[in-house]
Specification:
The complex is a heterodimer of chains A (166) and B (664). Chain A has 166 residues and is mainly α. Chain A has 7 helices and no strands. Among the domains of chain B are: 149 residues, Up-down Bundle (Four Helix Bundle (Hemerythrin (Met), subunit A)); 103 residues, no CATH class. Classes of the chains: A mainly alpha (166), B alpha+beta (664).
Chain lengths: 166, 664
């Protein structure tokens, strides 16, 4: 059993700003599902956008018109009305359908590489760039045999202006 | 008869691709203009044969020849002509035929317009291209023959998936393929250069137009796909971080990185080995894009051809092409020379930082797309990676990129001074700051997200033009000087300005849509109305109408604002009897700044219909910005320095070192 390291998504990055994200407003929500309380309904929508419809091909339950998605949307709203927090609602559904339903993968043992990957890519890139700059600085004008001669390079640099006079 | 002609032409193209590849080996031993001419003719012949094959299949679709298996499975006599034609690539076999046709089109274009290339390089490029062509032609001929006949032809066909019956989608795949396949040229140039062990400024100058063209096509293709999703899927979503969308986004990002790094090779002869690697990776990502859609390994709304056996073949092709090229790269890279040095504050550094960020962004999309697969195979667990992941990883990387997109073009080549450079940034920064304050005031301080991102958007647009102003010394020198400088500024630079500003427009669109989109859902009887963001939507009537090959319930709506009529919107729920499938056609009204969007849903049986009404501010800007980026690419492509096939009208012969050096 993999232990879920529960880390609030808010702490992951300074990305409170992005929490609302680029998920599009949408949906397959039908009028009879909509809750009276607008704040609860907004929370329900936000939760639905982060839950995957398990019978569909890569859609959130908020987007899917499938009957199961409808049932889950109703379930989400029932839990909210009965006083669950957003986190509890998601836990409740993930406990029944597995982590597969979470469109926001939790940080756990088998997702460490997923969450650390982007930072690692940037780090590797920055190291590479840094090394390149360090190696290069100081040795000025070192031309390799395969590259352009100084004259050719100069012509190349001048091309735009020549183009005009042509 | 036509299908047999098509099949025969396909096999001829396959044979020609073999001899075209052979040119590579012959050219290695013999310096003979005949070999180059031979490769050119082979590339042209391959293209002609595939035109014949493609035309035969199109003919079978147009004439509804149901003895052909793919026609029977994907077409129907009652379908409009446009969708009979679009049906050619609305299925696996036909779309693969389109793929190889476009591949050979690029080969033929090099043969025709690549006369300014040294014979040897052109022969090598066409030889490598022939090998790629051979792999895919073998795939089509062996596993996906579009011309297979049925023993007994059915009376009528199965029809085309209704959501694919749309003008936008009819032209979306050809553009997407022109993009994907266009990167094959970058691959062939890279491998050809590795074979000769020579990569220099000339190489970068020759490869750049092909990369630029492919990138423009891919930009347009992705835009069309996004717009199609927006109005077809019936809820106004335009990007889903779906595996297939990611598959097109990855080569788009790495293609953008390649464009910029090739610039450094061209101008400064630096970042050489990296650029070659990027060319190989970009095409590999394009191939993976094909693989994703074809294989069914990753489920997606777009996948219409799920067949693991074909997936294995394509996977083999990718491993061979990418693996072979990377092995060659590993052998050759120690011999590739490092070019001219550059300082930490310089245009080269800006472009290198751009490459670091773009590569990290592409790698992040790759990780997010394939991670569930890895976890499934290795850990026997199932997870999903959805929009929240990309919002927390991809978006911050892109923000960094958007910030340096303005700084880079302001820096001088080789070496620049931080203080002077920051002086040039004062107007974009000021404009961004004012924007954020304005947004905060308008939203009474509630929307920090929108304020920050709108500021970035304005920073980009103003910054792009500020780069032009700086270059032409606007306000710094006399107006006549500025005018003269503006005229002498190459088109490639105008392309930069337009494309970067386009990115700003897209960012503004995404921000506005994300922050201020509103929706209202309700059950409506005719005569009743919904209200949203000051707009009143009234359902006038619901009628049963008959379409060309569907029956529909047509809801007619009118939109009123402050007592004034704004628009009439029509949304249909269409039922396609041939496929027993249903689609929703949304009613959309755009004023190029915001969209009003209505979709009619299920009736409740007592005379009311579920109606979804959306207000989508700034939505059109997402696509306007994207098309502006493509326009920037096209303007840059028209730069005479890059134009292929046009004789270089440069008076001094010494400059024509391109052709002279490689002469016999």
């Amino acid at each position: 059993m993999i232990r879920t390291l529960r880390i609030s998504a808010r702490n992951l990055f300074v990305a409170v700003l992005f929490a609302s994200g680029f998920a599009t407003s949408s949906s397959a929500v039908t009028p009879d599902e909509v809750l009276q309380d607008p704040t609860l309904e907004m929370r329900a929508r936000a939760i639905s956008q982060n839950l995957r419809c398990v019978v569909c091909q890569n859609q959130s339950i908020d987007d899917s018109a499938a009957p199961l998605a409808h049932d889950l949307r109703v379930l989400v709203r029932e839990r909210l009305v009965s006083g669950d927090t957003d986190e509890q609602v998601i836990e409740f559904i993930a406990a029944r359908y597995g982590n597969f339903v979470r469109l926001n993968p939790p940080l756990q043992l088998n997702t460490i590489a997923l969450w650390l990957g982007p930072g690692a890519f940037l780090f590797i890139g920055a190291i590479g760039l840094g090394r390149h700059l360090r190696r290069r600085s100081g040795d000025d004008g070192g031309h390799s045999p395969g590259s352009l001669t100084a004259v050719e390079q100069q012509r190349l640099d001048e091309l735009p202006s020549e183009r005009r006079s042509a | 008869m036509a299908p047999e002609i098509g099949y025969f032409a396909l096999l001829l193209a396959l044979f020609v691709s073999v001899v075209q590849s052979a040119a590579l080996f012959v050219a290695a031993r013999r310096h003979d203009p005949m070999v180059a001419a031979f490769a050119d003719q082979a590339a042209l012949a391959q293209f002609m044969f595939l035109v014949v094959a493609f035309a035969s299949l199109t003919y079978a679709f147009v004439t509804s020849d149901f003895s052909v298996e793919v026609v029977a499975a994907n077409s129907h006599t009652a379908k409009p002509l446009l969708y009979k034609i679009a049906g050619v690539w609305g299925n696996h076999e036909g779309s693969m035929l389109l793929w190889v046709l476009i591949l050979s089109l690029f080969g033929a274009a090099v043969a025709l317009f690549g006369r300014n290339l040294p014979d040897q390089l052109r022969t090598d490029v066409l030889g490598v291209h022939g090998m790629v062509g051979f792999g895919f032609l073998a795939f089509v001929a062996l596993t996906s023959n579009p011309f297979a006949r049925l023993a007994q032809a059915p009376d009528d066909g199965n029809g085309l998936n209704p959501i694919l019956q749309d003008p936008g989608l009819a032209i979306h795949p050809p553009f997407l393929y022109l993009g994907y396949v266009g990167f094959s040229m970058a691959f062939s140039f890279a491998v050809a250069a590795l074979i000769r062990g020579k990569v220099d400024a000339c190489w970068a100058r020759w490869v750049r137009p092909w990369v630029l063209a492919a990138w423009c096509f891919l930009t347009i293709g992705i835009t069309l796909g996004s717009a199609w999703a927006y109005y077809t899927l019936g809820w106004g979503g335009w990007w889903f971080w779906d595996p297939v969308e990611n598959a097109s986004l990855m080569p788009w990002i790495s293609g953008a990185a390649l464009l910029h790094s090739a610039l450094v090779v061209e101008r400064r002869n630096a970042l050489v080995s990296w650029t070659v690697l990027l060319a190989i990776l970009t095409f590999s990502l394009s191939l993976i894009g094909t693989f994703l859609v074809r294989s069914g390994v990753l489920t997606s709304v777009h996948a219409f051809a799920l067949d693991p056996a074909r997936g294995v073949f394509i996977l083999g092709l990718i491993l061979f092409a990418a693996g072979g090229a990377l092995t060659l790269y590993a052998f050759r890279v120690p011999h590739l020379k490092y070019g001219a040095p550059f300082a930490p504050i310089s245009r080269e550094s800006g472009l290198a930082a751009n490459n670091v960020l773009l590569s990290a962004a592409a790698a992040t999309v790759f990780l997010g797309t394939f991670y569930p697969l890895i976890v499934d195979v290795i850990g026997n667990d199932k997870i999903s990676v959805g929009p929240p992941y990309y919002n927390r990883t991809f978006v911050p990387i892109m923000i960094a990129l958007l910030l340096i997109m303005v700084i880079g073009p302001m820096l001088k080549w080789k070496r620049d001074n931080l203080r002077a450079a920051s002086g040039r940034l004062k107007y974009p920064a000021l404009a961004g700051l004012l924007t954020s304050i304005l947004v905060l005031i308008v939203t009474s301080g509630h929307n920090i997200f929108a304020a920050a991102f709108m500021a970035v958007a304005v920073w980009l647009v103003v910054g792009s033009f500020a780069a032009l102003a700086y270059r032409t010394r606007l306000g710094d020198a006399s107006f006549a000087t500025t005018l003269r400088l503006a005229r002498s500024t190459p088109r490639a630079f105008y392309g930069l300005v337009i494309a970067h500003a386009g990115m700003g427009i897209t960012v503004a669109g995404i921000t506005g849509m994300t922050s201020w989109a509103a929706e209202k859902i309700g059950m409506l009887r005719p005569g009743k109305s919904l209200e949203l963001s000051g707009y009143v939507l009234r359902l006038r009537a619901v009628d049963d109408v008959a379409g060309s090959n569907y029956d529909a319930e047509r809801g007619t709506f009118e939109v009123i604002r402050k007592g004034r009529f704004v628009a009439r919107l029509i949304s249909e729920r269409r039922f396609y009897p041939v496929r027993q499938e249903q689609t929703v056609a949304a009613g959309i009204r755009t004023n190029l700044i915001s969209n009003l969007y209505v979709a009619i849903g299920e009736p409740d049986g007592s005379g009311a219909w579920a109606v979804r009404f959306y207000y989508h501010p700034f939505m059109p800007w997402v696509w306007i910005g994207a098309l502006t980026m493509a326009l920037g690419g096209i303007v840059s492509l028209s730069d005479r320095r890059l134009r292929v096939g046009v004789p270089q009208r440069v008076p001094r012969p010494a400059v024509a070192f391109a052709g002279a050096r490689a002469g016999p």
